[in-house]
């Protein structure tokens, strides 16, 4: 049975993984019959956001791994304790945590730094010809990691022109994509979908995520 | 368009709403074409549990409403600010938060006290002949609220004999139910499903929740 790693970035759209996207990806993967292992960096979040008010919760701190365990129902491994050989594919859900905790794109844009463990795992899977799916804002990670290596990944973040320009600045090709579809890089085996970059409802997000996961599974 | 209230109890299976159950319910409701409004009590959680270790996070406190906003992507109203007339139906996802924050069943069992705002909203909907769905452990709330009123709600929490005995002690009839099905009380218009009381996977939980929400919608 194939094993798919899902890299979480916390728990909540404004400071961690977008919860709907993560759960919809877990559902689609489980329905596809693969083994799923949630993963996360074992370090502090960039910050904590009060999701009711939208304000930063000053003085509060949370650990990415510990919060990710809420989505994973406890079963999440620190990235530092897994090997690329353990996985046949990776999935990167979105949410601001992907751009605040897995890298600092939310602050530095196209000049962002990527978490070293995330970058190492992505590079190892690409090198091994294993597929990776990235949802919503998470394709910025693929753009930065693979763009730095001189690759030109073919990706989408939907239609947001500012974010698309940043993807291109990092070395990627950006392909506009509607919410119910995904963009495939057949050479690098990447599948990306806009989800809540465009979705106006959970049903819309689910359509693109289902298609993305099915496409990923088809590449195994 | 019908409006369905979803009462959340925080964000995370061990101290709040079970995230998968809540998201699967939101997805099924949205797909059914109803308007959804997330709701939560505006008070502190019983405690905070580190979901990676399973231990209580001593000295930490979180607000139910603020954490529920993570699942709701910000759009959650305090129970004290809504009226029963605004809703055509209610959904109560599970997770320990239902038994720790919406009532204290986790501590006091069949003698539990229910949050007054939750009890008032449930009573008002039942009095108006509007349907209510409860998932996983959340049927204990219906048993306690309606049992106290001398009703005998027909409910399921799956097959756990201890919890079933507590339901009966609170005045309910307990009907064993497999994970992919739901139990209907046609008189009181209640629909209940075991979800993670029995589910071994998110796919299993989704089957019962989808059926539950479809049954609820059919009662509107």
Automatic annotation (TrEMBL), chains A, B:
Pfam families in the record: DJ-1_PfpI (PF01965)
All residue ranges annotated as the DJ-1/PfpI domain in the record: 15-152
Organism in which the protein naturally occurs: Desulfuromonas thiophila
Matching NCBIfam families: PRK11780.1
PANTHER family on file: ES1 PROTEIN HOMOLOG, MITOCHONDRIAL, GLYOXALASE ELBB
Protein's recorded name: Enhancing lycopene biosynthesis protein 2
């Amino acid at each position: 049975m194939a094993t798919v790693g899902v890299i979480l970035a916390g728990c909540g759209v404004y400071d961690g993984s977008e919860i709907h996207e993560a759960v919809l990806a877990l559902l689609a993967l489980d329905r596809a019959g693969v083994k799923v292992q949630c993963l996360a960096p074992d370090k502090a979040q960039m910050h904590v956001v009060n999701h009711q008010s939208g304000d930063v919760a000053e003085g509060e701190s949370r650990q990415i791994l510990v919060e990710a365990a809420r989505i994973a129902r406890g079963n999440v491994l620190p990235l530092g304790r897994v090997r690329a050989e353990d996985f046949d594919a990776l999935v990167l859900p979105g949410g601001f945590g992907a751009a605040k905790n897995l890298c600092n794109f939310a602050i530095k844009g196209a000049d962002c730094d990527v978490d070293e463990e995330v970058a190492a795992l992505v590079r190892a899977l690409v090198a091994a010809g294993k597929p990776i799916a990235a949802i919503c804002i998470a394709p910025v990670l693929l753009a930065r990691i693979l763009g730095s290596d001189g690759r030109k990944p073919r990706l989408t973040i939907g239609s947001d022109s500012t974010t698309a320009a940043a993807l291109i600045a990092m070395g990627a090709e950006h392909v506009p994509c509607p919410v119910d579809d995904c963009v495939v890089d057949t050479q690098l085996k990447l599948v990306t979908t806009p989800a809540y970059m465009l979705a106006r409802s959970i049903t819309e997000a689910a359509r693109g995520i289902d298609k993305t996961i099915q496409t990923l599974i088809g590449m195994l």
